[in-house]
Amino acid sequence: LQISQKTALITGAGRRIGHAVAKALHDKGFDIALHYLSSAKEIRHECDRMNEVRPDSAKIFQADLVDKDALKALSQHVLAWRPNLGVLINNAACFKPDDDVIGDSLFHTNVRAPYLLSHLMQTALSEQKGCIINLADVHGEIPLKGYDLYCMSKAALLMQTKSLARTFAPDIRVNSILTGPILWPEGESTLSEREKKEVLASTLLNQLGGTDAIIKAVLYLIDNDFVTGSKCVVDGGVSC
Ligand SMILES: NC(=O)c1ccc[n+]([C@@H]2O[C@H](COP(=O)([O-])OP(=O)(O)OC[C@H]3O[C@@H](n4cnc5c(N)ncnc54)[C@H](OP(=O)(O)O)[C@@H]3O)[C@@H](O)[C@H]2O)c1
User: How do residues 186-234 score in pLDDT, each as one tens digit?
Assistant: First the structure.
């Protein structure tokens, strides 16, 4: 990989896509700042595993991304551990159906947190000629019924990517991944079998992407130093 300082902060690294990306970057020799909110058990286990492979190559950091002060503390603690941060991956997100009550926290998690964290890490990332990768969603461009707030937040993240690419140029590259169906949603967004069939049919490839599809995009965006302000489309053809 092109980047000289192989240290990455990944938000929401305890489970699912964030966890898979963290593991893949660690395998490539990165030191990993593993952020989480509630997946304490999973992330401790992964952190221990990484440190067994290479001592002091991983550290866990808890923060509620809705909380501005917690974001500030997160950036301070990560930079105290590794001042030479090269990669920030804004992966954590809130994916929930529309509900007035969650509106604020959803926007704070999906839009404000990546924005503030990008700014809080700006000096460190600039020094390393580093990069920021935002996990966006095809539903930032194509509405998903019942998830208006989520779709709007991901649309804002796409614009944030382009805006910050300009603001931080030429020192930091900022890109997003326009993600299609990668893993089935969990919790209150769990799909019925009929809904799963509809999702698969919305892709041209009639399948879920799986986390490898995102890992490949992350590695490409880290490695290619002529790509900024772009969206890497990994959606199985949903937006085609
Ligand atoms: N899965 C897909 O197929 C798909 C499709 C399109 C786009 N995406 C995007 O890809 C990214 C990863 O997807 P995913 O399905 O793996 O995500 P996810 O499981 O829905 O959430 C990832 C993590 O975000 C963290 N998180 C949520 N709210 C938080 C908060 N207030 N403060 C701190 N952390 C918080 C959680 O950490 P804890 O577990 O530690 O609480 C969670 O594990 C997301 O940005 C998502 O929008 C995914």
Answer: 988 889 999 999 999 999 999 999 999 999 999 999 999 999 999 999 9
Locate 196 and state its tokens: 């799963």
Radius of gyration for the alpha carbons in the chain, expressed in angstroms and rounded: 17
Angstrom distances, CA of residue 75 to CA of 50, 68, 86, 237:
21, 11, 13, 36
Atom number, ligand 1, closest to the C-alpha of residue 110: 45
155-177 burial, b if ≥16 CB within 10 A, otherwise e?
Answer: bbbbebbbebbeebeeebbbbbb
Point out the ligand 1 atom lying closest to the alpha carbon of residue 92: 24
Which residue's CA is minimally distant from atom 11 of ligand 1?
Answer: 91
In ligand 1, the atom with minimum distance to the C-alpha of 150 is 47
pLDDT tens, residue by residue, 41-69: 999 999 999 999 999 999 999 999 999 99
Verify whether ligand 1 is closer than 6 Å to residue 182 (CB atom). Answer: yes
- Ligand 1 pocket residue status of 131, Cβ below 6 Å: no
CA–CA gap between residue 204 and residue 101 (Å, rounded): 36
pTM for this predicted structure: 0.97
